[in-house]
From TrEMBL:
The keyword Transmembrane helix applies. GO terms for cellular component: plasma membrane. GO terms for molecular function: transmembrane transporter activity. It comes from Ligilactobacillus apodemi DSM 16634 = JCM 16172. PANTHER family: MAJOR FACILITATOR SUPERFAMILY MULTIDRUG TRANSPORTER MFSC. Its main location: membrane. Pfam families: MFS_1 (PF07690). The keyword Cell membrane applies. Residues 10-461 form the Major facilitator superfamily (MFS) profile domain. This is Major facilitator superfamily permease.
Amino acid sequence: MSQTKLSPRIFLAVLAAGIMSFCGVTVETAMNIAFPTLMRQFSINTSTVQWMTTIYLLVISIVVPLSAYLNRSFTTRTLFLTANLFFLLGLSIDAFSPSFTFLLVGRAIQGIGTGIALPLMFNIIFEQVPPQKIGVMVGFAMLIVAVAPALGPTFGGIVVSTLGWHYIFILNLPLVIISLGLGIFSIKSSHKPTKEKFDIISFLAIIALFAGLILGINNLAQHPLLSVYVSFSLIIGLCGLGVLIYRSNQLENPLIDLTLFTNYRFTGHIAAYFSSQLMLLGLAFLLPNYVQLVNGSSATIAGLLVLPGAVLGAILAPLSGRLLDKAGARKPILLGAILFIISMILYVVYALNLSNFLVAFFYIIFMCGLGVSFGNIMTSGQQGLSRKQQTDANALFNTLQQFAGAIGVTLVSLIVELSQSNSSVSYAKATAIGSRNGFIVLLILAIIQLVILFFAVKPVDK
């Protein structure tokens, strides 16, 4: 391979892995539009229906930390085929699901497939792409994934309104089959697998960590903080974290290398990446529900309103990656953080009287910020790391991205539901108040992110 040119095979390989991530996010954001429909059909409340997203992201959060081990132990081709078949199985279950329980099972199986495919896409980039082209290729990967939030709500709105929610899954099946064909043709391994012992204790600790924290936070919707349902789950999660840290420090080849967090620049970048995803998934829940429950618009309208911003953000991803390759990371990343703050301030100010036009306009500002910063945060955070460290760093970035998504949806749905329980005002008014409170939390997070990035991203980054 040329040191400065990319072969078409690598583009196709990244595209093949990216399609699965694309389908996962498409289904996720499309189902957000379908939440009110599912709530009516299955007679469930807001905190229950959001498990469609939470369980998917929880499974991904458990699988993605294994990606460094999987990358060392299996060929890239084997991992891709495994991921693809899992995703196809999960889609098939949901496509013909008769109950909400089966829906959750299918989403969990899809999470296994996406949990393998998502870090695989970035491992292909960092292993097989010349350093001078990594920024633009990460941007290309982000474009693939970012198109999903652009199309997902619109796709979901049209499908739910015309064909029914089952077709959200049915219509994704051909795309995953196309991904399978592309991967068989283009994906090749750049390294030989090595025999490595799988540490079951670390794996169980990962399950305890993410299941405990996510269940504990999710249970806050129905139980007080000091109840057994919440506190016990959180304690399990923290114990899992403690065991994982201990095993990481004891083993020569841990499942995931947590010593990377001793690098303050890496830690700052990954914290910003975490917060960006939390804000994105938080808005993906807040906005469609606001448009439908407060403004009384249809699911189709809710999807169309976020389409322009998501498309623009997706287009900006590879362009900002090229800018990083040429001029460094600081300017595009800090610009993105500032745009996050501006958009959140506007959402907070107009939250109680947020017209559909303002929903779309403010979201354009937010997605421009995401487009110029998100992929560049990952690329900048891995600069200066060894190849082995990059594999573990990639696992950490993708793990916390998915965990942030689960926390973001759970957090904002909890905030909205607490306001919806107020019987002294109308349901629409209570939803608007809850949405405003959710925007305030996201604004605080955006301000913290800017401060972190100001110190973590150096002007000399190239």
